[in-house]
Amino acid sequence: MERLRWDEYFMAQSHLLALRSTCQRLSVGATIVKDNRIIAGGYNGSVAGEVHCIDEGCLIEDGHCIRTIHAEMNALLQCAKQGVSTTNSTIYVTHFPCLNCTKSIIQAGVAKIYYAEDYHNHEYALKLLDQSGIEYKKIPFNRQRVAQYLLN
């Protein structure tokens, strides 16, 4: 069997991280990679020490759950906390980043965004990515292909 490509491997990692999500509205995972090495991972969930949506429900304001930190932001903050540079890194995300996460990704110096599913792709986020020269690409995730590896 042909081994997984790097993009499949890192996207599978993001989908695995999404399984840790504590928000009931959408499970998202993000993996930040530099030189084909994972430097951080994140999923959407509550601030450390706070109750989780899966335990007490989402805290909705203006149509958004304000209890959770997005997966992309959690991964970026993990790098900041550990002093790991994200300059020229790549982020693999299960869903297209929201506008605020897109802005943070740009500011953090991430060079590429690969995502598996479209999700409210904000027009301004797309404009900012185009202006910044950040490569972004939808790479569908093939669960069956990855599952073959797990079953063998």
From TrEMBL:
SUPFAM superfamilies: Cytidine deaminase-like. Residues 5-136 form the CMP/dCMP-type deaminase domain. PROSITE patterns: CYT_DCMP_DEAMINASES_1, CYT_DCMP_DEAMINASES_2. Pfam families: dCMP_cyt_deam_1 (PF00383). Its cofactor is Zn(2+). Keywords: Hydrolase, Metal-binding, Zinc. InterPro entries: APOBEC/CMP_deaminase_Zn-bd (IPR016192), CMP_dCMP_dom (IPR002125), Competence_ComEB (IPR013404), Cytidine_deaminase-like (IPR016193), dCMP_deaminase (IPR016473), dCMP_deaminase-rel (IPR015517), Deoxycytidylate_deaminase_dom (IPR035105). It comes from the Bacteria. Belongs to the cytidine and deoxycytidylate deaminase family. This is ComE operon protein 2.
